[in-house]
């Protein structure tokens, strides 16, 4: 974009921008990168459902950031005397209130922070661990590979939810421990994926060239192999987000995740369960929120996969 | 003559290939079990609850605590404790449940058939509907039918199962009164019906108690359909992908050129070739339902192993929790790996390697 030699930097017309982006002979690295990003975006934005997913996730992030401003009432302090179990549409309470007289809409809005924090933390913990194990395993080969992959396979064969349950049971209930438990059970697929990508590039010419220039194995793995694994890893992590949300909500529902009065959506469903027959909205609203957000992540992940990997498109 | 001896060598090589596969399978299975036990052992040691104090109580004199600690082997080095733990686990001794005061293994044997029955019904529904839906979606790729199957599947991937369970109870039990209340049988039958295998549908049909069969059916249909929906989401998606793969192959073109009917090509030729990976997928979803039943059983008060684990969790009964984890984990691992082995043995394309 800042490259002065490019013809487009002097003009603002759309047509030449596109030409500049799609050129077969980019003048700089940045131009090539932007061009590829543009092609990917074009492919992604053709898919209407994927764009819908992206919008849902953007909305989730915005709501989480501005939750304090958006929430009309307190998420934890209710009006026990005047506003217990009001139905949706009551004046001032768009989605109704729960048994403590708390506004469900406000709780959902504030609770979006917990959901976003859980998926972000799990991704931040599990993805790098999987990436490191996978690339090291694939690059080193031999015994290191055999041992690391054996461990990965063992973890891959475990039942995730049950193991997360057992971990939380041992560590004690709470949102932090739920995050740790989910992260501990979700890194193996990433390691498998990173290893497969590493095996694909480890014998290529550019790696040989870097090695000849005297780069250490650490540098090769960190600077030259890991970046190659990133795009497929991002797709996989995005597709897993929905599963992470559902597991966290399930742990919350069983009373092992976030503890009341935290407005975690799964915990909210659990506390609304007692009123399901007469005050259906208490348990229904948080479930709709979970459904929308996980649907958003699934649509986004599907769209990203199709855009980044045209071979598998339409599958 | 030359021909027959060549055939024999091929047969021998194939037999050796199968033996190697089975041998490798046994080693992998054993190490994975070992890994599972190592993890549960580790979890059991991290627990903030002191297992000795849990037995003797916190008012016991120090000498008693020390004696029990020695009896339970907690003064041994960690690796000796692990060996001891392995020996106990391999003989099916997971200790005694604090909650029910029975040996954990006994409890699990009692509750396991309920989970098995539920997961089986779920898989039958999921595979019975998911495979045809996936085939139709692949054949009419891009059509409205394809879109509908895709969206039904996507929602299945995105919806919290316990929430859908609560809502379906509200609709089908409370409002419409189409199905029976949570549990396996009506109270009237619960004390008169004597189970044989513990799979109520089977037992009732076997002993020709049709009223019990109908009652059990009215109880299982809702949680079963719910689990079925989740396995349908997965199975239809995979079926579609496998079928698209097969329908693009040249033998399909050849079959069309021969003038075979489209129906025969799709349902006989293509589906048969997609069947091998499909068996793996169905087995995996079965294992997933056994595990995923934890949440469903809690919602529907289904007295299976999932409910057993969650009840024990709420009472800090770690022996029961870990015992249940090991049993579900072992079943999960076994199905997982067996389906992988089956795939290798059944698909000639993987046999060559």
Notes on the structure:
The complex is a heterodimer of chains A (315) and B (353). By secondary structure, chain A is mainly alpha-helical. Chain A has helices spanning 14-22, 29-46, 48-65, 67-70, 104-140, 142-157, 160-171, 175-186, 188-201, 205-212, 217-253, 265-272, 281-308. Mean pLDDT of chain A is 85; it is low at 1-11. Chain B is an all-alpha fold. In chain B, 79% of the residues lie in helices and 0% in strands. Chain B is built from 15 helices and no strands. Chain B has helices at residues 2-46, 51-56, 62-71, 78-90, 104-139, 144-158, 161-175, 187-190, 200-206, 210-247, 250-257, 262-299, 305-314, 318-346, 348-351. The two termini of chain B are 28 Å apart.
Give a brief outline of the structure.
The complex is a heterodimer of chains A (315) and B (353). Chain A is an all-alpha fold and 315 residues long. Chain A has helices spanning 14-22, 29-46, 48-65, 67-70, 104-140, 142-157, 160-171, 175-186, 188-201, 205-212, 217-253, 265-272, 281-308.
Question: What is this structure's SSE topology?
Answer:
The complex is a heterodimer of chains A (about 325) and B (about 350).
Chain A: H1 14-22, H2 29-46, H3 48-65, H4 67-70, H5 104-140, H6 142-157, H7 160-171, H8 175-186, H9 188-201, H10 205-212, H11 217-253, H12 265-272, H13 281-308
Helix pairs in contact in A: 2-13, 3-5, 3-13, 5-6, 5-8, 5-9, 5-11, 6-9, 7-8, 8-11, 9-11, 11-12, 11-13, 12-13
Chain B: H1 2-46, H2 51-56, H3 62-71, H4 78-90, H5 104-139, H6 144-158, H7 161-175, H8 187-190, H9 200-206, H10 210-247, H11 250-257, H12 262-299, H13 305-314, H14 318-346, H15 348-351
């Amino acid at each position: 974009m800042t490259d002065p030699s490019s013809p487009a930097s002097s003009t603002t017309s759309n047509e030449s921008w596109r030409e500049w982006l799609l050129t077969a002979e980019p003048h700089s690295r940045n131009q090539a990168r932007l061009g590829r990003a543009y092609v990917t975006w074009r492919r992604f934005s053709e898919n209407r459902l994927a764009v819908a997913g992206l919008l849902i996730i953007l909305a989730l992030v915005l709501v989480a950031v501005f939750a304090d401003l958006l929430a009309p009432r307190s998420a934890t302090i209710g009006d026990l005397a005047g506003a217990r179990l009001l139905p949706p549409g009551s004046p001032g309470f768009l989605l109704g209130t729960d048994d403590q007289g708390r506004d469900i809409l406000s709780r959902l809005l504030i609770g979006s922070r917990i959901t976003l924090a859980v998926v972000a933390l799990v991704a931040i913990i599990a993805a790098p661990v999987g990436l490191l194990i996978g690339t090291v395993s694939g690059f080193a080969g031999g015994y290191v590979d055999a041992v690391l992959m054996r461990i990965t396979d063992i973890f891959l064969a475990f039942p995730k939810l049950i193991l997360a349950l057992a971990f939380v049971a041992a560590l004690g209930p709470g949102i932090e421990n739920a995050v740790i438990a989910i992260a501990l059970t979700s890194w193996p697929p990433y390691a498998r994926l990173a290893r497969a990508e590493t095996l694909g590039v480890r014998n290529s010419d550019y790696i040989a060239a870097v090695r000849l220039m005297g780069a250490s194995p650490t540098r090769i793995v960190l600077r030259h192999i890991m970046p190659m694994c990133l795009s497929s890893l991002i797709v996989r992590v995005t597709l897993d987000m929905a599963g992470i949300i559902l597991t966290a909500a399930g742990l919350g529902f069983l009373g092992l995740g976030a503890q009341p009065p935290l407005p975690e959506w799964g915990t909210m469903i659990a506390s609304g369960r007692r009123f399901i027959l007469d005050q259906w909205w208490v348990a229904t609203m948080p479930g709709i929120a979970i459904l929308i957000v996980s649907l958003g992540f699934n649509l986004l992940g599907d769209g990203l996969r199709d855009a980044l990997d045209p071979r598998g498109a339409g599958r | 003559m030359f021909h027959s001896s060549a055939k024999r060598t091929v047969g021998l090589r194939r037999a050796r290939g199968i033996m190697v596969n089975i041998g490798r399978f046994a080693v992998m299975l054993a190490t994975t079990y070992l890994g599972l036990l190592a993890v549960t052992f580790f979890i059991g040691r991290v627990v903030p609850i002191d297992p000795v104090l849990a037995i003797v109580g916190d008012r016991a004199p120090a000498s008693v605590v020390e004696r029990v600690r020695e009896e339970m082997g907690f003064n041994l080095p960690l690796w000796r404790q692990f060996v001891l733990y392995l020996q106990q686990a391999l003989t099916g001794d997971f200790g005694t449940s604090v909650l029910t005061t029975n040996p954990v293994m006994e409890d699990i044997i009692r509750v396991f058939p309920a989970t098995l029955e539920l997961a089986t019904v779920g898989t039958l529904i999921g595979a019975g509907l998911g495979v045809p839906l996936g085939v139709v979606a692949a054949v009419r790729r891009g059509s409205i039918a394809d879109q509908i199957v895709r969206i039904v599947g996507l929602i299945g991937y995105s919806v919290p199962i316990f929430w859908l369970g609560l809502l379906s109870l509200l609709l089908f039990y409370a409002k419409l009164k189409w199905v029976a209340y949570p549990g396996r049988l009506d109270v009237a039958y619960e004390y008169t019906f004597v189970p044989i295998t513990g799979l109520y549908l089977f037992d009732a049909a076997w002993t020709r108690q049709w009223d019990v069969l109908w009652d059990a059916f009215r109880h299982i249909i809702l949680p079963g359909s719910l689990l079925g929906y989740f396995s349908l989401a997965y199975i239809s998606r995979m079926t579609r992908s496998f079928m698209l793969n097969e329908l693009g192959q040249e033998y399909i073109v050849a079959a069309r050129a021969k003038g075979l009917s489209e129906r025969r090509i799709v349902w006989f030729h293509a589906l048969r070739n997609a069947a091998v990976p499909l068996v793996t997928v169905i087995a995996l979803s079965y294992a997933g339902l056994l595990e995923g039943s934890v949440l469903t059983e809690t919602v529907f008060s289904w007295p299976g192993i999932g409910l057993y684990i969650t009840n024990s969790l709420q009472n800090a009964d770690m022996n029961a929790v870990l015992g249940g984890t090991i049993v579900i984990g072992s079943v999960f691992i076994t199905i997982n790996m067996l389906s992988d082995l089956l795939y290798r043995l059944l698909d000639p394309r993987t046999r060559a390697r």
